[in-house]
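Worked Example 4.2. Read the sequence first, then its structure tokens.
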Amino acid sequence: MIEVKTRKHGVDFYKVWFAKEPLKKSGVITYNQSALQGKNSDNFITLISDITKTPDEIKGAFTKNCRYKVNRAEREDVNIRFLDDAEITDEKIEIFLAFFKTFWESKGSAFDREEEVRRDLKAYREAGALTFAVAKVKGQDAVYHTYVYDDERARLLHSASLYRLIGDEESDSRNIIGMANRYLHYMDMLHFKDKGLKIYDWGGAGRGEDVINITEFKESFGGITETSYDYEEVKGFMAKLFKFIVNALDDVMIKNL
């Protein structure tokens, strides 16, 4: 389980991942992918891969086409590096955020959560629960994956890649980056396996029109479906008073619209 605490307005706020039992503390507690169902909880559907197996067995769960692309990337000029926790400096976070912003803009979307993502990444780093994985193609950072992890599970938070290499208009540039992305996922699995973890969590699997292609990509690695629960719990007088005031202000704002 991962527990990240912040404090504002005299109230403790907790973000908890992968809880198997309730947090015995007062405050506003946000549970992410909890094994427990809370009041008004939302189902969270994801795919998970077993990384206790041998590398060949892990790769053997991939579809034939996925294995081909992973193996092909191993023969290309693709280099992988990992940064864990204290290795992820503020400068490294800013480099990732700039990359992530470029990724979203390449899709025609604005990256409007920069401060929130920055704050979360720093909090996970301080909790000893953050990993960056980067694939370089022909010397350029081409793919980034970020993860939050505990002693059992690594969960994909962000995945971003270049559309094509900067200054490289060759027709195969985009294909090589796609193969590098698959190869990076495989190497991520081995990295977390070496750390003694058991589960590689793909960070969600939806069937909506906007995400079905991403889910099918994840399914090509042979994961199985898992359901967990997201919910908020408010415990203690100060936390309940804070939520009452916030909800009252929200109601006033809605009535004045």
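Now turn to a second chain, presented in exactly the same format:
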Amino acid sequence: MNAEDLIARREAAAAVVAEAARAALAFFERRNELGIDVKRPRDFVTEADRTIERQVRALLHERFPGEAVVGEEEGGEAASRYWIVDPIDGTSNFLAGSPLWGVSLGYVVDGEPVVGAVEAPVLREALAGASGCGLIFNGQAHDARSRPPSLGLVSLGDSADDDLTEMIDLYSRVRRAGWYAHSYHCTSVSMMFAALGRLDGHLQPTTTMWDMAGGVVLCREAGLLVETQDRGAGDHGVRGGTPELMAALSRNA
């Protein structure tokens, strides 16, 4: 894809996510009225998730008719090129009244995310990026060189599918390497924070493409090293961080 196409898709993704985020925030303000379904232990879905996903699909269809869309709630078939949406990433945080939830949208080409947009509506923060084309933060170009000095913080993602022994080992390696770990239970916002320099990275052994697609692009455009893994059966893994963090984790492997 050429830069012009990537930039156009970055702008479209940011606009779609912004509109969806406004609708999601309205749901958040009346979250106590929402019915809650449990997909599996600690994995929730609400009317808000389903409505926002349908809205994102409709907005994408207006801009890119006929293009494949995959979503957390309504599924879909991945193609060589497709959009992928998590309408409310961090639904448990959303329901608890925490601000740490987001709307995430990615565009994937041949298995690699190349466009991403994430918005945290309560925080009023939005970050969008495209491969090789830079980042836009709240509508303005974001200079990744403005990254603040490291505070030695990293986020660890968690999932009901995690292997507990693997997670304990990862936490031990992070601590031995000299970093402190946070867990926000929202992949997209965690990766946005890493891209903005509030964290040195985000590490998550088990996640999904809809959770991580937008954030992968943001972190790479911010100059972080990002490794992804297809673990099969729809599961993925992601490790993204500063060169110093990634090198330290390798030494402590």
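Notes for the reader: The chain has a mean pLDDT of 92. The helical segments are 3-29, 47-63, 91-96, 164-176, 187-196, 209-221, 243-251.
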